């Protein structure tokens, strides 16, 4: 990544430990440039969500802590800030699994995203209109309880709620989880629009490597808590190791997960 470009986020050699004994992240370093989409890729359990929670300072709620390294947002070290302080600074995480308030309506869920702003109602109405512009499906469901809308609509609601905080950076965790392929592409197209139209930087943790690299500008691959490869998204998509071990495509064409799992491990980073 071009270091002359101003980085919105810098994660430098970070180590994370849970319960004082379980080492989860082992010297993770990554950068997110201003206005960029950066994908954090890897299998389930690789450390993607832990990395996002290290940035958003949500680890403490799970008895985790950053024990080494530093995390900087716009040049300021943010390790000691509360999640609320970070939201006020423009950094917000959209959690894996959506986590909508099921007993509230869609619009009430969206409004909770603006609780740190102390904005006037007229301003909030303008922001709601902007969210409905990105997610027209939510407008027709605005009075529905969030617990009774579809999984795709809940994902839209979660992203829309984040937009209501007026973020400069969104940490987006597994937006494709549990969604039909057609809906996944629709969500990613909207994320791309948000990035371009709002100039909002995005750090995207995602198991769907093919989809993530289609929309990201740069990518990092995590394995067992370490960054094992990084590069421009277009370059990673054409890398033979990435094709075989993350996209399921080898030199002989597409292969099953079982074939790949037990295939000889020729990764250059092992």
Q: What structural category do the secondary elements indicate? A: alpha/beta
Helical segment tally?
Answer: 11
Number of strands: 12
Q: Which stretches of 5+ consecutive residues score pLDDT under 50? A: 1-5, 255-270
Strand order of the largest sheet: 6-7-8-3-9-10
State the helical fraction: 25-40%
The H-and-E topology, N to C, reads as EEEHEEHEHHHHEHEHEEHHEEH
Mean pLDDT: 88
Quote the beta fraction: 25-35%
Largest sheet: 6 strands, mixed
Based on CA inertia axes, which overall geometry fits?
A: globular
What would you say about this model in short?
The chain is of the alpha/beta class. The chain has helices at 48-56, 83-89, 106-112, 121-134, 136-140, 151-163, 181-198, 209-215, 233-238, 240-245, 257-262; strands spanning 7-18, 22-33, 37-41, 64-73, 76-77, 91-94, 169-173, 201-206, 218-223, 226-232, 249-250, 253-254. The longest helix is centred in the C-terminal third of the chain and has 18 residues, at 181-198.
Q: Topology, please?
A:
Layout: E1 7-18, E2 22-33, E3 37-41, H1 48-56, E4 64-73, E5 76-77, H2 83-89, E6 91-94, H3 106-112, H4 121-134, H5 136-140, H6 151-163, E7 169-173, H7 181-198, E8 201-206, H8 209-215, E9 218-223, E10 226-232, H9 233-238, H10 240-245, E11 249-250, E12 253-254, H11 257-262
Parallel strand pairs: 3-8, 3-9, 6-7, 7-8
Antiparallel strand pairs: 1-2, 1-4, 4-5, 9-10, 11-12
Helix pairs in contact: 3-6
Describe this structure in words.
The chain has 270 residues and is of the alpha/beta class. Helices cover 36% and strands 27% of the residues. The chain has eleven helices and twelve strands. The chain has helices at residues 48-56, 83-89, 106-112, 121-134, 136-140, 151-163, 181-198, 209-215, 233-238, 240-245, 257-262; strands spanning 7-18, 22-33, 37-41, 64-73, 76-77, 91-94, 169-173, 201-206, 218-223, 226-232, 249-250, 253-254. The strands form three sheets. A six-stranded mixed β-sheet has the order 6-7-8-3-9-10, with helices on both faces. α3 (106-112) packs parallel to α6 (151-163). It starts with 6 loop residues before the first strand and ends in an 8-residue tail after the last helix. Mean pLDDT is 88; it is low at 1-5 and 255-270.
């Amino acid at each position: 990544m071009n270091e002359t470009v101003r980085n919105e986020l810098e994660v430098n050699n970070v180590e994370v430990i849970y319960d004082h004994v379980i080492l989860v992240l082992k010297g993770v370093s990554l950068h997110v440039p201003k206005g960029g989409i950066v994908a954090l890729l890897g299998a389930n359990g690789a450390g993607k969500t832990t990395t996002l929670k290290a940035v958003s300072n949500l680890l403490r709620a799970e008895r985790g802590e950053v024990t080494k390294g530093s995390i900087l947002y716009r040049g300021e070290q943010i390790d000691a800030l509360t999640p609320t302080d970070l939201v006020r600074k423009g950094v917000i995480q959209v959690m894996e699994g959506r986590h909508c308030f099921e007993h509230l309506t869609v619009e009430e869920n969206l409004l909770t995203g603006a609780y740190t702003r102390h904005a006037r109602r007229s301003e909030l109405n303008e922001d709601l209109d902007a969210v409905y512009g990105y997610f027209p499906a939510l407008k027709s469901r605005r009075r529905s309880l969030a617990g009774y809308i579809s999984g795709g609509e809940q994902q839209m609601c979660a992203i829309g709620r984040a937009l209501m905080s007026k973020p400069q950076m969104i940490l987006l965790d597994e937006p494709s989880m549990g969604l039909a392929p057609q809906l996944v592409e629709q969500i990613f197209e909207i994320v791309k629009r948000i990035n371009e139209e709002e100039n909002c930087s995005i750090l995207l943790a995602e198991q769907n490597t093919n989809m993530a690299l289609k929309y990201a500008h740069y990518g990092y691959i995590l394995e067992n808590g370490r960054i094992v490869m990084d590069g421009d998204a277009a370059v990673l998509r054409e890398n033979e190791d990435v094709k075989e071990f993350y996209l399921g495509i080898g030199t002989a064409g597409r292969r099953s997960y079982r074939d790949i799992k037990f295939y000889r491990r020729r990764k250059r980073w092992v």
